[in-house]
Each structure stands twice: as C-alpha cells, then as structure tokens.
Amino acid sequence: MRLVYITDQIYLHGGAERVLSNKVNYLTAFNTVEVYIITSQQDGQKPCYHIDSKVVIKDLDIKYVRTESYFSVSNLRKAPAHYFKLSRLLNKIKPDVVITLSSQFDYYYLPYIHRKSIKIKEFHSSRHYYQEIRQHGSNSFLKKIIYKLNDFTEKKYSFNAILTDDEKKYFKSDNTVVIPNALTRFPDDSSSLKNKKVISAGRIAPVKRFEDLISAWKIVAETNKEWVLEIYGNGEGSYLKDLKKLINEASLQKSIFIKEATNEIEKKMLEASFYVMTSETECFPMVLLEAMSVGLPIISFDCPNGPKNIITNHSDGLLIENKNINALAEAILLMMNNKSLREKFGKNAKLSVKKYDKEIIMKKWLELFKYNQS
C-alpha cells in the first residue's frame, strides 16, 4: 500500500508537524507500506522532527508568500503551477491513500486528482472561531462563496478526519470521522514536582495568548517570587517583541524566560512542576499529552473544544474560565503552594493519558486506510 501525506512544510516546530512525523515513523514499520510526504514550501530545509529514512519526501517548491492570504493576487498566480506539479507527482506515485493536512489551494482540487485513491482531509485546528466568523462576522460576497466552496469540497473527500466529537457540529458533510492524536512515547521517568519551575510551550503567536500568562504571572509574583516560568517556542517576531516588552514593563525579567523551541521538550518538562496553557483556541494540543506523560499537572483556560477533551477538571488538572486572568493567577498559586495536589494530579495525568497510546490510535487509521495488517 502506498500512502501520501500532503502538507505545506515540515521544518517549523508545531503540533501538526510533530503528529505527522510520529505517524509516518510508525507506518514505516510495516514492510508492505510505502510512505511519502509531499510539501509545497519546504525551501530546502531539514525536517524539524525526526523522519524515518524510509519515508520519501518530495517538495514542489511553490514559493507562496506566507505572510499574505492564499487568495492574494501574488499567491493566486502560483496556484496553477501547484496544481500541475502535484497532479504529475501523484500520477507518478499512484497512491492508494492520500491524506492532506493542507489548507492551501490543493485542499480544493485534491479530490479530483488521481481519483482511484482514498482522499482524507485531516484537520488539526478547531473550527470554533471559523464558525463564529461565518455566522456573525464578515458577510462579504467573497467570504460567502469561500464558505460554500469549503462545504462543497469537504463532501468530495472520502473522509474528513477531526480530533474531537465537539468539532462534528461545524461540518455539513456526513463523512467525518473522529480520531484523536496519538502519544508515541510513554516515559518511564516522571517529574519530581519539587522544582519551583512552571513550563509552557507553543508557537509564539497571538492565538497562544502568552500575554495573558504574563499578566497572570505578574499577579503571582506579588506574593511568590521564588518560582520561574519558562516558555518554549518560535514564531512571530513582532509578537515576541511585544511579549518581551510586557515582561520588562512588569519587571519580571528574573522570573519569566522565553526560550527557543526545542526537540528536548520532554527533558524540560521533567524539570518543571506543572504546565500552563492560555491559548485562545485549541483542538487537541499534543503538548498537553506530552506534559501529562511525564506526570505534570495541567492548568489551562477552558478555551473552545480543546483542553476539556484531554483534562479532567480537578482530577489531573484545572480548567479555568476562559481568559479570566485573575482566576488563572489563583490556580497557579494554588498549584505552587500545594505539593500534595500536584502529586495527585500528576499521578492521575500519567494514567489518563494512556488511552492515547499509538497502538490504539493508529489502529483506527489503518482501518480507515482499509489496510489488512495480517
């Protein structure tokens, strides 16, 4: 069986990129499975996560301007080249299954290329705010056309793979399947939960709302100056500059440290005593699974659809009213000052995350691919 994954790039650190690398590395263990990754904008860079050497990686070298909409004039001009390059390559590979993570132009025309293959659109972000904008936001003629086009296109895929049951209500097609992300590693080690260190990680972008975490930390630091917060991630330079300005204005330079994204995040988590997430929206954040796998309690805003599908409130973590900075600060202080609570939550976290074992999750994918493992 030949499997092709399509995405824009695999050189930037992110949840979708990490999940993709985990899946293809798992699939290469089957001698009768050939795995390909087709990118459109790899720009000659190496993958940010380990990819098994058996995986064939092909880049179409479509130089879209990433800072502009794909419907901008400069990017629209490049769409025909994208179509013909992808079509030629798929016809050459002759895949049995094509799975796309992309939201570029290929998302719209992929169902019509190499029709013999199973086509799967894989979603890695929540549609909550997409739906909010669709219902209450822009009513422009162009937007309405795009929404209708999306609905039409999704019906043309064999399956739309989503991460949680909560996301089903945002799709008009009846071909949705729910498959959560898998955790490929369950470390033997667990955090001692003794270090006075809190950790957070993710793309440095406004959607992660690290400014709320900094604001909450400012409240925390008024009564507790012994603990430090480490934030790991790469991303938007202007947003990073704003975050550093907030840290400086609050005189928190000695307790908040923003560091580069790392492939050793497990090691960093083992050094921390709990994890905090302040995202505006999430769908199924891998970073929470990774934190829980080393026995870290979680504190997270109860943002739409994501964390509540992973965290059991008051069992392995705390779900805080979305965007309530004062409540977040109170929860952080509670976790700092109560080691027995950290130990209880951490133990439960390590147990609850086992339901996302790769063997359980990847079996669902293999069934979707109609692959007979025997």
Give the key terms:
single chain; 374 residues; alpha/beta; Rossmann fold; 6-stranded parallel beta sheet
Short recap of the structure:
The chain is built from 13 helices and 13 strands. Helices cover 37% and strands 16% of the residues.
In words, what does this structure look like?
- 37% of the residues lie in helices and 16% in strands.
- The chain has 374 residues and is α/β, with parallel strands linked by helices.
- Helix 1 (15-27) links the parallel strand 1 (2-7) and strand 2 (34-39).
- It is globular, with a radius of gyration of 21 Å.
- The mean pLDDT is 92.
- Residues 193-350 form the Glycosyl transferase family domain.
